Amino acid sequence: MSSEIDSSTLLSRASQLIDLARKAGADAADAVVVRSRSQSVSVRLGKVEGTESSESDDFSLRVFIGKRVASVSANPGFDLQALAERAVAMAKVSPEDPFACLADEASLSKSYPDLQLLDTTEVSSEMLREASLAAEAAALAVKGVTNSSGAGASAGMGGLVLATSHGFEGSYMASRFGHSVSVIAGEGTGMERDYDFDSRLYYAELDDPSEIGRRAGERVIKRINPRQVPTGKDVTVIFDPRVARGFVGQIAGAINGAAVARKSSFLRDKMGQQVLKSGLSITDDPLIVRGPSSRPFDGEGVSGERLVMIEDGVLKHWFLSTSTARELGLETNGRGVRGGTAVSPSSTNLALEPGDIAPEDLIRSVGDGFYVTELIGHGVNMITGEYSRGATGFWIENGELTFPVSEVTIASNLKEMFMRLTPANDIDRKFGVAAPTFAIEGMTLAGR
Question: How many secondary structure helices (H) and strands (E) does the chain include?
Answer without folding.
Answer: 10, 19
